[in-house]
Amino acid sequence: MDSFFYGIEDLFVNVLFAPFDALRAMENWWGANSLNWIFMLIGAAAFVYWMLELKKYNDSGEENKDATAHSYL
């Protein structure tokens, strides 16, 4: 059973994390953080998309803005 877990360890440490080790060893700061910048750009694009969808929903006037509509007590 130990060999199974050592095999998983070897897969992750020596194979799957190898690209991250290469990024970490880079001398160029911008290159080493390129993956972080990609994730930040994806997050910013998703944020802008979601805000535009919320604005579209808000401008359509479908929401019931009556103050008594949500009183459950």
Per-chain topology:
Elements: H1 2-16, H2 18-24, H3 29-32, H4 34-60
Condensed summary:
The chain is an all-alpha fold.
Q: Can you give a write-up of this model?
A:
The protein is mainly α. The protein contains four helices and no strands. It has helices spanning 2-16, 18-24, 29-32, 34-60. It is elongated. The mean pLDDT is 88.
Strand-residue proportion: under 5%
How many strand units? 0
The rounded Rg comes to 24 Å
Main beta-sheet strand count, sense and barrel state: none
The overall pLDDT average reads: 88
Low-pLDDT stretches? none
Tally of contiguous helical segments: 4
Q: Number of folding domains?
A: 1
SSE-based structural type = mainly alpha
* Span between termini: 58 Å
**Portion in helices:** over 70%
Sum up the overall morphology in one term: elongated
Helix and strand sequence? HHHH
Please tag this protein with its features.
73% helix, elongated, 73 residues, single chain
